[in-house]
């Protein structure tokens, strides 16, 4: 994952006002940062750890569509209108975040061009990562799709299931969980 300098997003960057409501928070592995039913009014900037982001299918099954790491964000930014928010974020590892009040965060980046530029760059990078994954699904053979995702996550066939489930890998590669299982065994064997 590309690293962005987020020193400007530490509580030291912003004036310490009650309005900003910047709070460091910790989440243990497996804990939800938020779920669809939550009334989320926060932006989470990840300081350390990894978070999987997804939604729920028609049968209630989790579908993962991104994994965010240090210096990335998640949260309900409410730019898509007043509809119901369907996303969840769950800690893949122990996670530390700086949590900002959504309204204060938006005001801050409207006033500060460098913060606005940083955030737009971060969104474009996430969008590009999603496009790259879709391209791999459309153009690569299954083994190469999985290998590219493992490289993106900084994982190997031997340790990836310590980070995410085979079902998560299937969601992110457009493969079945069974295919992922077979490919991981083959990749471990060389």
Automatic annotation (TrEMBL):
GO terms for molecular function: DNA binding; DNA-binding transcription factor activity. GO terms for cellular component: cytosol. Pfam families: cNMP_binding, HTH_Crp_2. The keyword rRNA-binding does not apply. Keywords: DNA-binding, Transcription, Transcription regulation. Residues 24-107 form the Cyclic nucleotide-binding domain. This is Crp/Fnr family transcriptional regulator. It comes from Neolewinella aurantiaca.
